[in-house]
């Protein structure tokens, strides 16, 4: 049985329950026509001035008869998820809420995990067993990230794609691991990439997938995908609750900034691209990022899924010219 997820959750519990997690974001953005999914939600009454991701998630979940249950993150992700839950309940889906405590309180997070494990009908013991197996895959993702920033053998887009897919391991951890090991074997044979401008990408994954290729064409490479890396649980913490306590994305900008600053320095980043989705409250956090990070920053805003528009390409060109 498939279980939809609206963002990264303790996926170990889903696998431990013998169910298949499906990250609705990944299904939406890789659909043949993501924009058609957005328009379908609008035809049902979703407002035009609302984040396209929410509309895409709604249509994906509603249209898939194999997804009868959705785990929705009600705190620590999108502020529109509450209404998304309600409209999916209206469509006949079962909703399991999950909340990351804003203050990163260990006991509150453990309580949320307890509720999730119970709702899925599994146990802590089985969940921890799954974690051990997933951590073996996560070690390979850490290696992939190293090959990106230290050896230049993995492109920014490849890094993005593998890390963002670790939210649900493409619904099949065994196959994911097999393909990842093959990929790593191949990229190690690649020559080291000629030095390019080193870019950090921070913020939610982009709704404009050609951004990475455009940067590569203009002599820049993303060597740090902030949120995507967080999805991969890179700290390899043994304690399950502690693992999701260290995960920075749901706990506000200051939790994220300490990780971002450390990685910017370690990866010798030249400049930062901060991506913000239209109509997302995280756009407000841009002013904090600009005060706290002392590197050139370009803030990009994406609205609908699709290729970069001319205005965005011109802004990227001007930014790269400025920092050369």
TrEMBL record:
Q: Which InterPro entries match?
A: FldB/FldC_alpha/beta
Family membership, please give it: Belongs to the FldB/FldC dehydratase alpha/beta subunit family.
Q: What Gene Ontology terms describe what this protein does at the molecular function level? A: hydro-lyase activity; iron-sulfur cluster binding
- Keyword tags: Iron, Iron-sulfur, Metal-binding
The domain of life for this entry's organism is Bacteria
Tagged with keyword Lipid biosynthesis? no
Which protein are we looking at?
2-hydroxyglutaryl-CoA dehydratase
Give cofactor(s), names only: [4Fe-4S] cluster
The answer to whether keyword Metal-binding applies is yes
């Amino acid at each position: 049985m498939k279980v939809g997820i609206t963002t990264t959750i303790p996926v170990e519990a889903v696998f431990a329950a013998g169910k298949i997690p499906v990250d609705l974001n990944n299904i939406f953005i890789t659909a043949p026509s993501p924009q058609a999914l957005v328009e379908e939600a609008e035809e049902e009454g979703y407002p035009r001035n609302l984040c396209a991701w929410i509309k895409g998630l709604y249509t994906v979940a509603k249209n898939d008869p194999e997804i009868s249950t959705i785990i929705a993150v009600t705190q620590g992700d999108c502020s529109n998820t509450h209404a998304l839950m309600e409209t999916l309940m209206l469509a006949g889906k079962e909703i399991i809420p999950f909340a990351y405590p804003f203050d990163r309180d260990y006991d509150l997070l453990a309580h949320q995990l307890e509720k999730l494990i119970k709702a899925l009908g599994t146990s802590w013991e089985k969940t921890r067993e799954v974690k051990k197996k997933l951590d073996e895959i996560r070690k390979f993702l850490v290696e992939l990230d190293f090959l990106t920033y230290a050896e230049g053998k993995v492109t920014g887009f490849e890094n993005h794609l593998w890390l963002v897919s670790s939210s649900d391991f493409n619904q099949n951890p065994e196959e994911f691991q097999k393909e990842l090991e093959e990929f790593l074997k191949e990229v190690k044979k690649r020559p080291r990439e000629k030095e390019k401008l080193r870019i950090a990408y921070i913020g939610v994954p982009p709704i404009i997938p050609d951004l990475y290729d455009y940067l590569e064409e203009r002599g820049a490479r993303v060597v740090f995908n902030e949120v995507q890396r967080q999805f991969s649980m890179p700290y390899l913490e043994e304690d399950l609750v502690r693992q999701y306590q260290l995960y920075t994305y749901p706990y506000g900008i200051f939790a994220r900034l300490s990780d971002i600053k450390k990685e910017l320095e370690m990866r010798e980043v030249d400049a930062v691209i901060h991506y913000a989705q239209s109509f997302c409250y995280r756009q407000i956090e841009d002013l904090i990022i600009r005060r706290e990070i002392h590197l050139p920053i370009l803030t990009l805003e994406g609205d609908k899924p699709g290729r970069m528009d001319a205005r965005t390409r011109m802004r990227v060109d001007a930014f790269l010219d400025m920092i050369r």
